[in-house]
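Example S7 (structure tokens).
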């Protein structure tokens, strides 16, 4: 990430620069809600799963039923049951590329990256036009620090005219990690246009605005992220960083404290709170 030039209005500039770098790095590594982790546990209700079980009982040789119920199990965080359903779907139809990609996502959440990549590879082998598999595999690569391979996967999904904002958001994170902030801002803007209710691209774009010295636009983006989802620690820490830049130490401390409350292990917030407390 390129260095942010210190300003006369912000005395603790070295601390701020370190915070911006760490926040950007954290943004590149996150796998949080909405855009980066498309499993919505609220949709995995016991009622829905029970209904899907009834469908399977009526037609036990239909792989679609197992695939859908496996996805519901995944949304509920019941990963072992999800894997079992995807296994069954693939036994019935070995060319069910969507089931491979869905099983890969479960492996990813279980931390079994090699198995996830293998399943994404199989999905792509069966259907080279399947954008979701490129995005999923790219996310595994990105989180493993294999940014070149990740970039190529997101690029491929975009070339396939994906309408999934995660492809642009994740490519934007890689541009950001490379210090190419204008390109990152363009990608985050596209991600926002595709998935306007996700806070992640607003946070990403705000960090790149800060890297370019545009604190006003960054502040707007961080506030929007908070309005969309007030339970994301990164958003509050990012907002605090702008308050700190403006010399509003009390407000910065309050926002850092909120971030720490949401995620006690989030180091940028802990460091910021230590700087601004008292």
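Recovered sequence:
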């Amino acid at each position: 990430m390129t260095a942010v030039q210190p300003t006369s209005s912000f005395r603790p500039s070295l601390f701020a620069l370190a915070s911006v770098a760490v926040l950007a790095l954290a943004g590149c590594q996150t796998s949080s809600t909405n855009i980066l982790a498309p499993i919505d546990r609220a949709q995995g209700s016991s009622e829905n799963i029970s209904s899907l079980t009834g469908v399977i009982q009526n037609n036990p040789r239909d792989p679609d039923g197992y695939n859908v119920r496996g996805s519901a199990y995944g949304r509920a965080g019941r990963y072992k049951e999800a894997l079992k359903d995807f296994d069954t779907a693939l036994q019935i139809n070995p060319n069910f590329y969507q089931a491979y990609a869905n099983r890969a996502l479960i492996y990813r959440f279980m931390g079994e990256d090699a198995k996830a990549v293998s399943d994404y590879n199989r999905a792509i082998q069966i259907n080279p036009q399947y954008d979701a598999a490129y995005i999923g595999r790219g996310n595994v690569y990105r989180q493993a620090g294999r940014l070149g391979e990740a970039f190529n996967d997101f690029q491929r999904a975009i070339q396939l005219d994906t309408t999934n904002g995660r492809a642009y958001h994740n490519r934007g994170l890689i541009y950001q990690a490379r210090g190419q902030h204008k390109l990152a801002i363009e990608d985050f803007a596209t991600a926002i246009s595709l998935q306007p209710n996700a806070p992640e691209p607003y946070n990403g774009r705000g960090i790149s605005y800060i890297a370019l010295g545009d604190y006003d636009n960054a502040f707007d983006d961080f506030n929007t992220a908070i309005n969309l989802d007030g339970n994301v620690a990164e958003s509050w820490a990012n907002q605090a960083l702008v308050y700190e830049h403006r010399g509003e130490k009390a407000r910065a401390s309050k926002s850092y404290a909120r971030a720490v409350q949401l995620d006690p292990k989030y180091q940028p917030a802990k460091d910021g709170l230590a700087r601004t407390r008292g």
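Notes on this example. The chain has a mean pLDDT of 87.
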